[in-house]
């Protein structure tokens, strides 16, 4: 194994689009997908907005036998995995089944499925609770169902570290490949937009209670008052570069070049938040200087204290306003474990097309020492991107992705609406 781990395929199920192409077009255009919740009646709750994956009909993509045994989260993940494997050109028999694994992240498990079975228990009795409840709610169910569907028997697992988990899963997948696996399906997809899941999300105290979708999720803005939740995420196909070449892959999206993770210190300890050191660790792992980073995809918590900590971490390591910063999750909401992988896909598409997507609806507070991209996408050659994620409880993760070597890049595919006129 070369130690170089590359991304050969991506699959996206996001509020901004089903499939990477639709997501990328909507993101570059700044088309936000946040609106009033429709998956349950939110009227009695203080927060009523979310980023929903609209237009997703599981029966159009999955066999009927899977529908009664899966939560919405798992259905979205299964479809994302199908698309990622197809994008990478992977078919059964291409590799030994024991050389291919699945490493995903989850923040909540199958909340909606569990809520339905609890309703059956309370209203009808235990005999009406589905046997599938035993695993449909579980954090590891996406890993299990993807591996079963595609016959993947290699090293696998699940990471649970809230919003940081998706990046942690990618890092674990890279470790598995460096230890001998040839290909890992990795990333995260979450979906807990049900009344039970909503009650859990509200306990964070960080949800925006604004009713105007354009004013609800405003990181690095003086009007910031919390975030909007969302559902969905992305799965990526990670491969050893040499193995990918042997498989006949001629082009890929980029390299997972560096990773760093830390925990925040105990509240009240007066020690600096851990994000700054996570960035340093990721750069060191990638053997990259701060000046090599061309764009930062921010965690974007949208509370003044957390936004300040993130902006200062970026400025301290990369320099004040030294590099463009973007937070396209203002269009989707925060997707829990799906957020980091979706940002990674978006970063890889930014590398491919030389385009930094905007942060929607935000008027940057000049008090933050960062160069936030707003309004319209910014054309810029992107060779390396830094993706950040933080989970409640003190998790911090950072990943550096780097452009492919010459001759191995995917061809650009800038959305037609943004292409230069002939």
Automatic annotation (TrEMBL):
Residues 2-403 form the Ketosynthase family 3 (KS3) domain. PROSITE patterns: KS3_2. It comes from the Bacteria. One of its GO terms (molecular function) is 3-oxoacyl-[acyl-carrier-protein] synthase activity. It holds the Pfam family Ketoacyl-synt_C. CDD domains: CLF. Transmembrane segments: none annotated. InterPro entries: Beta-ketoacyl_synthase, Ketoacyl_synth_C, Ketoacyl_synth_N, PKS_Beta-ketoAc_synthase_dom, Thiolase-like. Keywords: Acyltransferase, Transferase. One of its GO terms (biological process) is fatty acid biosynthetic process. Belongs to the thiolase-like superfamily. Beta-ketoacyl-ACP synthases family. This is Ketosynthase chain-length factor. The lineage of its organism: Bacteria, Bacillati, Actinomycetota, Actinomycetes, Streptosporangiales.
